Amino acid sequence: MPTDSEFVQKLLQATERGQVDWHLAAVEKRFNAAVGGRWTVQVDEHTTDPSIHYLTLRDSQGQELLSIGQWEHEAIPTLYEAARRRALKVNDALTEVIRDLDKLSK
């Protein structure tokens, strides 16, 4: 039987490999990704306490199947940060900023 922990670890690994396409949601500090055409995963940062993060899994009908807080799995904050960086294209921005800084030193 699959476990919540296995799900979190596989999602984190796929995110770190760039295989999950995360997007900024309409709600601040929330990121969504579609997985396999049937599932939606969502990571959130608590609105008043940025040290608290959640992961939610929904089916294609929007039914919440699973909700995991960081107190249930220590990798949730790491997943949130990886999803945030992917959705906001932080690595692309860093590449461009470094390129611009290199131009200044010439």
Structural write-up:
The mean pLDDT is 94. This protein has three helices and five strands. By secondary structure, the chain is α+β, with helices and mostly antiparallel strands. Helix 1 (4-16) runs parallel beside helix 2. It has helices spanning 4-16, 76-87, 90-104, and strands at 23-24, 30-35, 39-45, 53-59, 64-69. Strand 1 (23-24) and strand 2 form a beta hairpin. It has one domain (4-104). It has a five-stranded antiparallel beta sheet, covered by helices on one side. The chain is 38% helix and 26% strand.
Give short descriptive properties of this protein.
alpha+beta, 106 residues, 5-stranded antiparallel β-sheet, elongated, 3 helices, 5 strands
Main beta-sheet annotation: 5 strands, antiparallel
Shape: elongated
Percent strand equals: 25-35%
Which structural class do you get from the secondary structure elements?
alpha+beta
Count of beta strands = 5
- Rounded mean pLDDT is 94
Lateral arrangement of strands in the main beta sheet: 1-2-3-4-5
Tell me the radius of gyration: 16 Å
Helical stretch tally = 3
What are the secondary-structure elements, in order, as H or E?
HEEEEEHH
Distance between the termini: 59 Å
| Low-pLDDT sequence parts | none
Helical content, roughly? 25-40%
Please tell me the total number of domains. 1
